[in-house]
Design goal:
The structure holds two protein chains of two kinds. Helices cover about 70% and strands about 0% of the residues of chain A. Chain A is built from four helices and no strands. Chain A is elongated. By secondary structure, chain B is an all-alpha fold. Helices cover about 75% and strands about 0% of the residues of chain B. Chain B contains 20 helices and two strands. In chain B, strands 1-2 form a two-stranded antiparallel ribbon. The chains are: A mainly alpha, B mainly alpha. Chains A and B meet through helix 1, helix 2 and helix 3 of A and helix 5 and helix 6 of B.
């Protein structure tokens, strides 16, 4: 754990910030969703990394093993992945509907069309 | 099997199960009956829980008989019972309203899906309140949020799609912040049970990750409850959603997020830690900004539903203002306002939705002369508006009075001034409606005088009547809020 600890946290923080940056800085609705997905995935790492012990096995009682990785974070993240997939599916479905209604998936175009009366 | 023993989980399970059955039925009418029955059952169960709390205190329920620190615990105390009654009660009254309102706004083949989503949203909101497990809160937050994105996107205008997309982005960031905060707390304590977390936090010597968790949870939930600078998603979402959805979400969605914030502040971190690091001051400044900026924005709206949405942002400011005091009186005011504003705003959105349905437009200019074309409806909107201002005799007065008492308790006279001044801004935006409805002639194209469909009018008037009733007899709401506040601050009654 010790040599991987700071590394995994650095990766987590980098992915989090990068994902959030994409959400804020991009105008394309799909790119925003990609950023959101990266941001959510970074949180999975935040949970999983501390749950893993170097040299630990799966939490199954077997002779010769006495170090186990914590199974709970994995279970939680399984749930979070499902939530993430649902969010992504709904977001993409919304983008499809927005494209049907506005004929564009660029936020600028949509806002411009909102302001100008049809 | 003894059903009473499973009381804490039933309000969540009943709507949750009714949703897939509604989808399988593929019939709008069946789905409507199912969702309505589920919401009334949830209300009955919530009231039963509330009464049980009064007699025996906190109820703990271990799901699947796994004992609390390891298994998932549902924990109902004075605060959660109170919010459960609010959420289930609003759903039980909004659903009968849905029938005619949704018939007019949605194509028939989508009706059963609408009711399924409504039931899911209700289950999610009730789950957030009932559970005593941190990760469970996140999952239910996402269930309620995903269902509400769909509900908002169902609005007739194409702007509803963009509003829903923006809400999805903001809401997901908020929920992810919450889960980061929960993750940090889990790293520090090794538990997800809120009560257990509280005890173990006392023994944590390194406070920095705990403070980081506090920051993440505060920002995440502030996004969800639309605290002032993070409220951008709310006005569009409420204005373009179907009317029944605006009424339901305005009364419950943000309120449940406030509940989560209260739960983490007082049941996990403890009031001492939260107010020591200056959260109170930050909330105070943002609440004041919300009260003034959002009220001012409401004055300049040309769309009735958007005006009400901005007024919601301002009223959420009053709730967080009471929270920022960190005193029992302030907390009582914010909990009672959570309830009072919920029913008032639900009634207002229902009546406004009715007016929009009949007049086929929500812009103020098209609603001109509403006092003549729809006298009862516009009278109801004025009554609700008086509640937003906080005129004595309405529920809004009770909350503002308590807020002022709490400010005086801290001997901050200028705050009293600020509360009264921001109420004057509310007078202005309510007056804008009065002016449009009573002192302007109906436009040429206006339809002849018409009334609301009866089911919609009855449901809306129940809410408006409740907001007047709780303004005259506040013993029930204020008493529950006070005991919840005392419980949160640790001074057990």
């Amino acid at each position: 754990m010790s040599q991987f600890g700071p590394f995994s946290y650095a990766v987590t923080v980098f992915l989090m910030v990068a994902g959030l940056y994409v959400v804020i800085a991009r105008n394309n609705l799909i790119k925003k969703l990609v950023g959101l997905s990266i941001f959510q995935t970074a949180v999975y790492l935040l949970y999983i990394a501390p749950g893993k012990l170097i040299g630990g096995t799966a939490p199954i009682v077997a002779p010769g093993f006495d170090t186990y990785s914590n199974p709970l974070p994995h279970v939680l993240i399984l749930t979070a992945i499902v939530v993430g997939i649902a969010t992504m599916a709904l977001g993409l479905a919304l983008v499809v509907r927005i494209r049907e209604a506005y004929d564009s998936i660029e936020e600028d175009d949509i806002l411009r069309e909102e302001r100008s009366p049809r | 099997m003894n059903l009473a023993a499973h009381l804490p989980i039933l309000p969540v399970v009943v709507p949750l199960i009714s949703a897939p059955i509604a989808v399988l039925s593929r019939r709008g009418s069946v789905a409507f009956v199912l969702a309505t029955a589920a919401s009334w059952a949830a209300l009955a169960l919530a009231v039963a829980l509330w009464m049980q709390i009064q007699s025996q205190g906190v109820i703990s329920y271990a799901i699947g008989n796994w004992p609390p620190p390891w298994g998932i615990e549902y924990r109902i105390d004075a605060l959660s019972a109170f919010v459960l009654v609010l959420v289930a009660g609003v759903a039980a009254i909004v659903l009968p309203y849905c029938r005619r309102s949704i018939e007019a706004e949605l194509p028939r083949e989508q009706h059963y899906l609408f009711y399924a989503m409504f039931a899911l949203c209700l289950a999610g909101l009730l789950g957030i309140v009932a559970t005593g497990d941190a990760f469970n809160i996140f999952v239910f937050v996402e269930i309620a949020a995903l269902a509400s994105y769909v509900l908002i996107a169902l609005g007739r205008d194409r702007k509803a799609l963009v509003a829903s997309y923006q809400y999805l982005i903001m809401g997901t960031i908020g929920a992810t912040f919450l889960v980061i905060g929960i993750g940090l707390l889990y790293l520090m304590t090794g538990t997800l049970n809120l009560a257990d977390m509280r005890q173990r936090l006392a023994g944590v010597s390194d406070m920095r990750p705990v403070l980081t968790a506090l920051a993440f949870i505060t920002v995440g939930m502030s996004l969800k409850l639309a605290l002032f600078p993070l409220h951008q998603w709310l006005p569009n979402a409420y204005a373009h959603a179907p009317s029944a959805v605006s009424a339901f979400l305005a009364a419950t969605g943000a309120k449940v997020s406030v509940y989560v914030l209260l739960r983490f502040y007082f049941s996990v971190f403890g009031a001492g830690l939260v107010f020591e690091v200056g959260v109170g001051e930050v909330l105070l400044v943002l609440s004041l900004a919300a009260m003034f900026a959002a009220s001012a924005a409401a004055i300049f709206q040309s769309d009735l539903k958007k005006l009400l949405a901005y007024s919601s942002v301002a009223q959420i400011g009053y709730i967080t203002l009471g929270l920022s005091f960190g005193s029992v009186t302030g907390l009582t005011a914010s909990i009672v306002h959570l309830f009072n504003h919920g029913i008032t705003k639900a009634g207002l959105f229902m009546l406004a939705g009715g007016a929009v349905l009949v007049m086929r437009a929500s812009s103020m200019s098209r609603l001109a002369g509403l006092g003549r074309t729809m006298p009862l409806t516009s009278f109801g909107i004025v009554l609700g508006g008086l509640g937003l201002i906080g005129v004595p005799g309405t529920a809004g007065f009770i909350s503002k009075w308590n807020l002022i008492v709490a400010a005086l308790e801290r001997s901050q006279w200028w705050l009293v001034f600020a509360i009264v001044l921001s109420s004057l801004l509310a007078v202005v935006y309510v007056w804008r409606f009065v002016e449009v409805a009573y002192f302007r002639d109906p436009p040429e194209s206006a339809l002849p005088r018409r009334a609301l469909p009866r089911s919609m009018a009855v449901a809306a008037w129940v809410m408006i009547a409740a907001s007047i009733y709780f303004g005259l007899d506040s013993s029930l709401t204020l008493g529950s809020a006070a005991s919840a506040a005392q419980m949160l601050m640790g001074a057990r009654p």
